[in-house]
Structures are given as structure tokens and as C-alpha cells.
């Protein structure tokens, strides 16, 4: 069997010869030549026929063949172009069985020819088989690289009038992913893609009606796993002499790979054109030269640059290099060259100058194109307008890096800089200085938040002249500033720098009665350090300085390091105390309070005591602030209540039913949601009478929100609790608003009591506080009373109660009980002696 290829194009003939090299081919250059060859060679059964040819075209050749009965069974596949759909139809009408479009796609040609040849072979063998019952057919069928399926004469799927395949060769089974048994059980519809059903139904209708002898199409089958397989197939009727009914053969080749490639190509072409027309900028192709001589520029050019496309093409009016803002020209080109050398794509953000002289931010993405010698000769890419994004980005960047109030770089900026510097090795010495003004917060309460913000702003103005390339200034927190120092000589230099700052700040802040502190950390190469640790230790160092004296300057050293270690150990102890029921490390002491009028003990204040395994006794002034900072005071606070309540139960059981217990409560506990609820629950569980509990709070309690806090106190008092203001007179806030306070007691701070021994005017102050408190029906307790003289004076001024070493030091639970027993005994014996 031979194939005749008729095509006037030498290239196409060459292609066909190559693709079909394993077939016996006969070549012809035009229709006349083709007819000649056909006439000469009996073995030709299949013709590949170009339609467009000089001398005699394909149509003429087809017509002439049709008129000759000798060529009745000749199969003709026509070659057509994409724009010749009518020709295809005309060709098919003239008896062609299939068509292939030019340019010739090797795989398409191969698939079609294979299938048509196979079909011819099958038909031929079937005809022979009727006479010989030979086995050749079966062998060919089994081993064919083409899927072959044959349907029996009597069976047809009624409804959709499609063949039901009774026989399939292994290749067909492999293509559709089903063996014949399975294939017969599933509905044709189920395995055919919906978009192909109508076409195939129509094709088959014509075939079964005898209007055509075969049809071919590309269709999609669903495999059992749901995946799609594209096939090219030909279905033909197989009626051989003497048979009744109709038989069909279906030949199929898997063309999925090609289809996918085609679709991907079409999709990428489509998205490319969509992209180009919607691009907020321009696409270009230019020579690889520094003035970017443009060879192609897309329409977006006008909108982006203000120049029409023609102006830019071939540098007619302007070069692209001139459009790039001057300061970017060199860096953009250099980067371009670098990317070309490394064969990577180029990406750069820069500014351009539009025709009207306006600046615009753009993003350029491009790629060099290389010739055979691997030299870049052209460049292709896109330039997009990103000015809107840049505005937002710059603003975000500014806000992210700056403190809004002072306009200085903020903590995030300092962190970024430090973070960056860790990774570089440094010859120069580096240090960070922190200026801590945390005392300003107390002013917020009195004068409002804006007042302090304004004050800080003024401090920033004082500090700005100190800032230089080597001393970079940051505003790290509302009340903290920092200098990042690079390349200083020695400690002395840092110290002198800080002294000057301290001097200027003192002069300014003295009128506000505000202090501060300066902490310094010299950065070393210790690998265990990181930014977080550095800034945390810097904060502690500066806080240390604040506590030391006004504008003290403190270097981070072993001592601070030890203190930080100690704080960590205290935190660990606190955690143990909270998490274990057995608190050998924690207890309460109870300090008696004496009623001056009756001369009787009227209650105790409970005071927390820590006895750490590793540190020994730790003062409350050390561990309470840490528990507040870590919020551990919340769970600890409940423990303290529970222990104080238990002590109350004990003394009540001993008959002391008139004694009140004071409990210190931190502001952090009040801020905790559900604190009041938790407290009430504990009171109920332990069956405590709230009347016997005094809650001691400090004046700072009112610093955050006076009214809200006052309401909380109201709720506690309504439940029966007594409220006492601790350390009264030391803060700014409450003295002036005493009349508004929802409290029962004021505890006058020890510092006032101390002064009773020395300066006369202070005696007047304490007397005034007492009489003012009485007017508001608040009782007054004097704290830290150590001397008899103090007691006498306080009594004279009308003070209600005293607490202090004069009465007793804070006592353990057992000692407190013994103390009560003893005064009872003394009272009884003195009564007896009267
Ligand atoms: P605070 O509430 O003002 O307690 C009074 C402090 O004065 C206690 O110190 C007490 O031992 C001491 N003191 C009493 N009489 C005298 C005296 O005559 N002379 C001298 N020099 N001192 C006297 P302490 O126990 O060291 O407690 C210090 C602070 O720790 C307390 O001051 C309180 O603010 C806080 N604190 C203690 N226990 C607790 C607690 O359970 N919870 C909370 N939130 N804070 C507590
Ligand atoms: Ca207290
Ligand atoms: Ca106190």
C-alpha cells in the first residue's frame, strides 16, 4: 500500500516525506502530476492532496478522480489553510475523507495518516477474512499502536444511536482507561465530554443513515478517574459483502499532549494580548544600547510618558534614556547590563520624566535577548506606572519608621538598624543610649495626655541638636528617646555626651518638677545578644538610672546584669508560688492597727512575704513590681485574698469577731476583667463577711480613669467591703479631689508622720489632712508610727488609728495570734489590778 502526496510546496513535500518516512510514498508537484502517478501505480490507496496548486489544483484533481470508477475507494486527505474553511467543505463534498490544516503539524499529520491507513488495512483484512478466515486480522488488531474498537451489527444504543463496542484492542482500552466489559456498562454520555456530544451524535446519525461512510473528529473521553483524554478518531461502517445489519469500526489515537500544548499556547497568547492592552504602562522591545533605541512600543506609551508611540520609535523625537529621570539613568543601565551578564530577568523601580516634565514612579521588568554567540542584542520588557502605590508606600514607610508626635525615627527604625548591624562585622565601637522620662506619665493625670505629648515634643527639640551622623536620634516610646552611637572613642566620650544632655534636660524640666534617667549599653560581639535582649536590658538600665537620682547616667554592667538575673529568679519563684499549693516560699505577715480612741487593736494589715529558695527573703518592694510587670499579681492576688480570709476565719473562731483584715490590691488586679466577680465568688465560697475586709489601694489607682475606677469602688462598698487609700498624700492626684473619693479610710504616708518629729509646719499639714478627711467622713490611719511623741501628736490632731513599729512590727500568723492573746491577758490582769 502506497501513499501519494500532491503538493506544489517543496518544503511541505519534504516535511511530509520526513514525517511519513516509514510509509511507501509517491510524490507529485501538482494535480496533473498527481493524476499521472495515480494512473501509473496500482498500489496507491491514500492521497494527501494540497488544494492550492498551479497547473491543476486539488479540486480539479478530485473532480477528475470522482468521474473515474477506478478510484471509487481512494481515500483523500486534503491540505488546507486556516482561512479556507469553505474549501474544506467543498473538498469533503468531493469525496475527501479528512483534512489537515497548514502549516503542517507533524503530529497531526502522523495521527491522521496512521489512522486512515489502519482503517484501510482493517477493511482489507476483513474482506479477505470473509473468504479465508485468516488470522492476520487478529494479530494486527492485538498489536496495533492505534486504538481499535468494533461494534457488533445488532447492537446499537437506541436512544442516542451510537455504536456499542463489542471488541476493543488493548490500545483502545488503554486510551479510554476501561476494558471492554466496563466500557459496555457505562453510558456513552458519561464518558464523552459534554462539548463533544452533539457533534458526535450528528456525525453518527449521518453514518448510520448511510449518508456518509465514515466520520473523523477530535473528541474528549473521561477516564474512570475523571481525567480527560483527547483522541483523534475515525469511525467508519464496516459492511462487508454478504453481511446484514451494520458494523462499525472506530480508530483512535491519544492526542492529549498536543492538545494541552496547543491550549497552553493559545491561553498564553490570549493573556499576553489582554495584558498588553490593559497594561498600566508600556511594553517595548529595544536594542541593547544605553539610549534604549526602541523598536517596538505598545499603545500605553502615551498615557505613561506623555509621548506618542512614534516619538519614541527609533529615537525619532526622544530616546527612552532621556525619559528616565537623570539620577536613575546610570544605575538602571548598569543593572540592566548586570542582569544580562547573569542571564537573569531585570527588575527596577525608578522615576521617569513625562513629556510635561512631571515625575512618575515606574517599575520596569525586562529580559535581554541573545544571539547565537550569546551576546545580548535586544531587550524586551514592560514599564508600569506605580506612582499611586509609591505614594501610599512612602507614607506607610514614613509612618512605620517615624514617631508621629516628634517626627523622629521610631523604635521600629532603630530595631531595623540594629538588626541589620548584627550581621555585619564592625571595626568601629557601637553603643545605644536611652533617655528615660517615665516620670512624665504622672503629669498626664493632672494636665491631660496632650500636655505631656507637647512636653515630650519640646524635649525632642532639645535633643535634636545633639543628633549627628555618629549619634542617631530615635523616639523609641512615648517617654523615651535613644541615640544609636557608631564610631565613638571611649566610655569617656559617651559619658561627656550624656552629661551635656542631662544638663540641658534638667534645666528644662526643673520647672515641671520632673526627673529622668540615662542608660547606656556598649555593644560587644557577644553572640548571645540580639536586638530584643539589647533593648530590654537598655530599658532596665535606664529605669535603674531613674531610681538612682535626677538624671543619673548608668552604664550597663555586671551589676545591672546581676539585677536582671535576680529579677528573672524572682519571676521563677513567683511562678512556683502560683503553681504549687505548697507555698513554703510565700506567706503573709499581719501588722496590728490600733484605734486611738479606744486604745484597742481594731484590725491587721496583711503584708506579703517571699522567702525564695535561691534568694532567701525578698522584700515586697522588689517582688510586687515584678509580679505587676509580668501580670503574675493576678493569680498571686487571689492567693493573698484566700490566705487573708483564712486568717480572718481563725481569729473569728478564737472569738475576735470585731477585727478587720486589710488586703493590699494592685491596680493591675483591678484592670483584669472578672476580678470583682472572682473576688465575690471567693467571699461566698469561704463564707466571709465583706464588712470585715478592707481593700487597700494606692492613689495611682485613679491615674488611668478616675470615674471608672471610682465606680468599681462603689460596687465593692455596696457589697460591704471597706476601702482604704494607701500612702495618701504622696501622689499628685487625689489630694485635690478627696471629696469625690468613694472610700472609707485614708492612710497617711509614713513620710508625713516622720516629719512630725522635726519641722513644725508639717504638723499643720497633717492636721489639715485629718480635719479635711473628717469633713468627708473618712477615717484616718497614720502609717509608720515609731515614737510615742508621734502617737501623742496624732491623737491630739484627732487621728483615728495608727499602725507602726510602736504598736508592733508585722507578725507571722502564729505571732499575731500570740499578740492578741497577750494584750487580752494584759487587759484582764490590769482590770484585775484596778
Ligand atoms: P504599704 O502597703 O504601705 O505597707 C506598709 C509598709 O510599711 C510595709 O512594708 C510595712 O512593713 C512597713 N511598716 C509598717 N510600720 C512601719 C514602721 O513603723 N516603720 C517602718 N520603717 N516601716 C513600717 P512592706 O511589708 O515591706 O511592704 C511594702 C509595700 O509592698 C507595701 O506598702 C505594699 O505597697 C506592698 N505590698 C505588701 N504586701 C502586698 C500585697 O499583699 N499586695 C500588694 N499588692 N502589695 C503589697
Ligand atoms: Ca498597705
Ligand atoms: Ca502605705
What does this protein look like?
This protein is of the alpha/beta class and 834 residues long. It is built from 31 helices and 30 strands. An eight-stranded mixed barrel has the order 22-23-25-26-27-28-29-30, surrounded by five helices. Strands 16-18-19-17-20-21 form a six-stranded mixed beta sheet, sandwiched between helices. Helix 4 (85-93) links the parallel strand 4 and strand 5. The longest helix has 27 residues, at 106-132. The chain is elongated and about 155 Å long. It starts with a strand and ends with a helix. The relative contact order is 0.04. The mean pLDDT is 86. Bound molecules: ligand C2E and calcium ion (CA) (2 copies). Residues 605, 664, 696, 726 line the site of one calcium ion.
Supply Rg. 49 Å
Structural class: alpha/beta
Hetero ligands: ligand C2E, calcium ion
Shape: elongated
Counted beta strands: 30
Q: How much helicity do the residues have?
A: 40-55%
Q: Number of helix segments?
A: 31
If strands are numbered along the chain, what order do they take across the biggest sheet? 22-23-25-26-27-28-29-30
State which percent range the strand residues make up.
15-25%
How many strands, which pairing sense, and closed or not: the largest β-sheet? 8 strands, mixed, barrel
Mean pLDDT across the residues is: 86
Poorly predicted segments: none
Q: Calculate the terminal CA-CA distance, rounded to whole Å.
A: 148 Å
Amino acid at each position: 500500500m502506497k501513499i501519494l502526496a500532491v503538493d506544489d510546496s517543496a518544503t511541505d513535500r519534504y516535511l511530509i516525506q520526513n514525517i511519513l518516512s516509514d510509509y511507501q510514498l509517491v510524490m507529485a508537484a501538482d494535480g496533473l502530476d498527481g493524476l499521472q502517478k495515480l494512473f501509473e501505480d496500482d498500489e496507491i490507496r491514500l492521497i494527501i492532496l494540497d488544494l492550492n496548486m498551479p497547473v491543476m489544483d486539488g479540486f480539479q484533481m478530485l473532480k477528475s478522480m470522482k468521474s473515474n470508477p477506478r478510484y471509487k475507494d481512494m481515500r483523500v486527505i486534503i491540505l488546507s489553510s486556516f482561512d479556507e474553511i469553505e474549501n474544506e467543505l467543498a473538498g469533503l463534498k468531493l469525496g475527501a475523507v479528512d483534512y489537515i490544516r497548514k502549516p503542517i503539524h507533524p503530529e497531526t499529520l502522523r495521527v491522521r495518516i496512521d489512522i486512515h491507513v489502519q482503517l484501510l488495512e482493517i477493511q482489507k483484512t476483513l474482506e479477505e477474512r470473509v473468504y479465508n478466515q485468516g488470522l492476520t486480522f487478529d494479530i494486527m488488531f492485538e498489536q496495533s499502536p492505534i486504538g481499535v474498537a468494533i461494534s457488533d451489527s445488532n447492537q446499537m444504543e437506541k436512544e442516542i444511536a451510537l455504536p456499542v463496542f463489542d471488541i476493543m484492542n488493548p490500545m483502545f482500552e488503554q486510551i479510554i482507561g476501561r476494558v471492554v466489559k466496563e466500557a459496555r456498562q457505562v453510558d456513552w454520555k458519561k464518558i464523552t465530554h459534554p462539548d463533544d456530544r452533539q457533534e458526535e451524535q450528528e456525525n453518527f446519525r449521518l453514518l448510520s443513515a448511510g449518508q456518509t461512510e465514515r466520520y473523523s473528529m477530535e473528541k474528549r473521553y473521561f477516564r474512570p478517574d475523571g481525567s480527560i483524554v483527547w483522541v483523534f478518531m475515525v469511525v467508519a461502517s464496516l459492511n462487508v459483502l454478504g453481511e446484514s445489519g451494520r458494523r462499525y469500526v472506530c480508530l483512535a489515537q491519544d492526542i492529549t499532549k498536543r492538545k494541552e500544548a496547543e491550549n497552553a499556547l493559545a491561553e498564553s497568547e490570549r493573556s499576553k494580548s489582554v495584558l498588553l492592552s490593559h497594561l498600566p504602562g508600556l511594553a517595548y522591545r529595544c536594542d541593547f544600547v544605553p539610549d534604549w533605541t526602541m523598536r517596538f512600543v505598545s499603545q500605553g506609551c502615551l498615557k505613561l510618558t506623555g509621548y506618542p508611540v512614534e516619538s519614541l520609535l527609533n529615537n525619532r523625537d526622544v530616546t527612552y534614556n532621556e525619559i528616565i529621570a537623570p539620577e536613575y539613568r546610570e544605575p538602571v543601565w548598569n543593572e540592566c547590563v548586570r542582569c544580562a551578564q547573569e542571564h537573569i530577568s531585570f527588575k527596577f523601580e525608578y522615576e521617569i520624566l513625562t513629556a510635561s516634565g512631571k515625575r512618575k514612579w515606574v517599575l520596569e521588568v525586562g529580559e535581554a535577548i541573545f544571539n547565537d554567540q550569546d551576546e545580548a542584542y535586544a531587550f524586551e520588557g514592560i514599564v508600569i506606572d506605580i506612582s499611586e502605590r509609591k505614594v501610599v508606600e512612602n507614607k506607610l514607610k514614613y509612618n512605620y519608621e517615624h514617631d508621629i508626635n516628634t517626627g523622629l525615627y521610631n523604635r521600629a527604625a532603630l530595631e531595623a538598624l540594629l538588626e541589620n548591624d548584627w550581621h555585619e562585622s564592625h571595626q568601629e565601637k557601637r553603643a545605644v543610649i536611652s533617655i528615660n522620662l517615665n516620670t512624665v506619665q504622672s503629669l498626664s493625670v493632672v494636665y491631660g495626655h496632650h500636655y505631656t505629648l507637647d512636653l515630650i515634643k519640646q524635649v525632642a527639640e532639645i535633643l535634636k541638636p545633639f543628633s549627628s551622623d555618629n549619634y542617631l536620634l530615635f523616639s523609641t516610646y512615648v517617654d523615651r528617646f535613644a541615640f544609636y552611637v557608631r564610631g565613638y572613642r571611649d566610655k569617656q566620650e559617651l559619658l561627656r555626651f550624656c552629661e551635656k544632655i542631662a544638663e540641658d534636660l534638667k534645666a528644662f524640666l526643673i520647672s515641671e518638677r520632673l526627673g529622668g534617667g540615662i542608660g547606656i549599653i556598649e555593644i560587644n560581639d557577644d553572640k548571645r545578644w540580639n536586638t530584643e535582649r539589647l533593648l530590654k536590658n537598655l530599658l532596665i538600665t535606664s529605669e535603674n538610672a531613674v531610681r538612682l537620682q535626677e538624671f543619673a547616667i548608668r552604664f550597663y554592667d555586671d551589676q545591672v546584669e546581676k539585677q536582671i538575673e535576680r529579677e528573672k529568679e524572682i519571676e521563677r519563684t513567683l511562678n512556683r508560688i502560683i503553681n504549687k499549693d505548697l507555698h513554703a516560699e510565700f506567706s503573709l505577715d499581719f501588722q496590728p492597727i490600733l484605734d486611738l480612741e479606744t486604745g484597742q487593736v481594731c484590725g491587721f494589715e496583711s503584708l506579703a512575704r517571699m522567702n525564695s529558695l535561691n534568694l532567701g527573703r525578698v522584700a515586697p518592694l522588689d517582688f510586687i513590681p515584678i509580679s505587676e510587670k509580668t501580670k503574675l499579681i493576678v493569680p498571686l492576688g487571689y492567693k493573698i485574698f484566700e490566705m487573708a480570709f483564712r486568717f480572718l476565719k481563725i481569729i473569728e473562731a478564737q472569738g475576735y469577731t470585731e477585727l478587720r483584715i486589710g488586703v493590699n490590691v494592685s491596680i493591675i488586679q483591678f484592670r483584669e476583667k472578672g476580678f470583682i466577680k472572682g473576688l465575690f465568688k471567693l467571699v461566698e465560697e469561704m463564707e466571709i463577711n465583706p464588712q470585715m475586709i478592707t481593700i487597700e489601694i494606692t492613689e495611682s489607682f485613679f491615674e488611668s480613669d478616675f470615674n471608672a475606677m471610682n465606680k468599681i469602688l462603689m460596687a465593692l462598698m455596696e457589697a460591704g467591703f471597706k476601702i482604704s487609700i494607701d500612702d495618701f498624700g504622696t501622689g499628685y492626684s487625689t489630694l485635690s479631689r478627696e471629696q469625690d473619693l468613694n472610700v472609707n479610710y485614708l492612710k497617711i504616708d509614713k513620710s508625713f508622720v516622720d516629719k512630725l518629729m522635726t519641722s513644725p509646719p508639717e504638723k499643720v499639714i497633717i492636721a489639715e489632712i485629718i480635719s479635711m478627711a473628717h469633713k468627708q467622713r473618712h477615717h484616718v490611719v497614720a502609717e509608720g508610727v515609731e515614737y510615742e511623741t508621734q502617737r501623742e501628736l496624732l491623737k491630739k490632731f484627732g487621728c483615728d488609728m495608727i499602725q507602726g513599729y510602736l504598736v508592733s512590727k508585722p507578725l507571722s500568723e502564729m505571732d499575731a495570734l500570740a499578740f492578741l492573746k497577750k494584750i487580752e491577758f494584759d487587759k484582764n490582769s490590769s482590770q484585775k489590778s484596778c
